[in-house]
Amino acid sequence: MALLDLDNIAPRLEGNSMISIPHYKIKDGKYAVYVIKVAIDSTIWTIERRYSDFVAFDLQRFEDRKKSFLPPKKLIRNLDLEFLDERRIELEKYIRTVVELDLWLQRRRKQYALPSLVAHFLDFHEYDSFFRTSDERNVRIMICVHEPAEGFEGGYRWRNEVL
């Protein structure tokens, strides 16, 4: 889990620019990657994810749901610029909604961590400071163990323990 100061994040992500997908790149003329920008306080990073990475993430995050909320896959002319821009907008709405939902659930549970699957998809594990926090009551340190994950390119599933 990635620890966050949830009280300082706007309840609805439209109120901040924590996550956005400002553009996409076409790689080798064969496929597109979507550039996800994450901004937490003064730390900003970008991640590149293919549509198939979003599909694998969606299957893991919502494994009991029959219908996905991802934009549909297109088999023919899937590198059409208009199509890619529309998909970029829909993927941004999707990932912001998922994060917004998880932040809301964590607030209700009075927990201050982003679920590990979401945190990993957004590469929080690359930024050690988000895995440690202290509050007035205690200090929580996350031990994150890499486990190869099935499903998305270069992915890991995180097993977490709180000390």
Automatic annotation (TrEMBL):
Compartments, as annotated in UniProt: Cytoplasm
Classification via PROSITE patterns: PX
Gene Ontology cellular component list: cytoplasm
Major location category of this protein: cytoplasm
Keyword line: Cytoplasm
One Pfam family it belongs to: PX
SUPFAM superfamilies with a match to the protein in the record: PX domain
Location of the PX domain: 12-138
Top-level taxon of the source organism: Eukaryota
Molecular function (Gene Ontology), one example: phosphatidylinositol binding
Statement: the UniProt record of this protein carries the keyword Cytoplasm: yes
PANTHER family xref list: PX SERINE/THREONINE KINASE PXK, SORTING NEXIN-16
Protein name in UniProt: PX domain-containing protein
Taxonomic path: Eukaryota, Metazoa, Ecdysozoa, Nematoda, Chromadorea
